[in-house]
Design goal:
Number of helices: 10
Mean pLDDT: 78
Shape: elongated
Structural class: mainly alpha
Helix content: over 70%
């Protein structure tokens, strides 16, 4: 599931998650020190961590990478994705299809939690995914029929 999560996150979000962990590990580096080094206000950094903003722009991310002496592409996984695309185009196609589905959800966080739970369920009992799909499709069918009955009843009243 983690490969799907990384694909769904933007580079800014991936980088921000990495940065938050990095600052926790590096006791000598605080958000204030980092802010001074890269030329942003400390509240900007705390805004990234509290998700009030999507994360730093690439220019700032590159300054942060320079400060920590790390490679930006390694952090955001660009090289891994390019390599996996060359190795197995089927995976990339599935990832794109999955992303298109996830984009359609209004409650993306809930949809992601459901997907994560399904991954765990499949680990415990691989055959249960099929029964879960049947259950969801049955529920969908019932909801469609209920909606059609309401629509018909509403049309009959008019």
């Amino acid at each position: 599931m983690s490969q799907y999560i990384d694909i769904m996150l933007t580079e800014k979000e991936i980088f921000t998650k990495w940065l938050k962990k990095k600052i926790k590990i590096e006791e000598a580096t605080t958000g204030v020190v980092l802010a001074q080094k890269v030329g942003v206000h400390p509240s900007t950094i705390s805004g990234w961590f509290s998700r009030k903003s999507k994360g730093p722009e690439k220019k700032i991310r590159l300054k942060i990478c320079e400060f920590f002496q790390v490679n930006h592409d390694d952090i955001v996984g660009k090289k891994k994705k390019e390599k996996s695309a060359k190795q197995d185009p089927k995976i990339v196609n599935i990832d794109r299809q999955h992303w298109k589905v996830v984009e359609q959800f209004q409650q993306k966080d809930t949809a992601l939690q459901i997907n994560q739970a399904l991954v765990e369920l499949e680990k415990v009992d691989p055959s249960s995914l099929e029964s879960m799909l049947e259950m969801v499709l049955d529920r969908l069918d019932r909801k469609k029929r209920e909606a059609a009955k309401k629509r018909d009843a509403s049309n009959d009243k008019q």
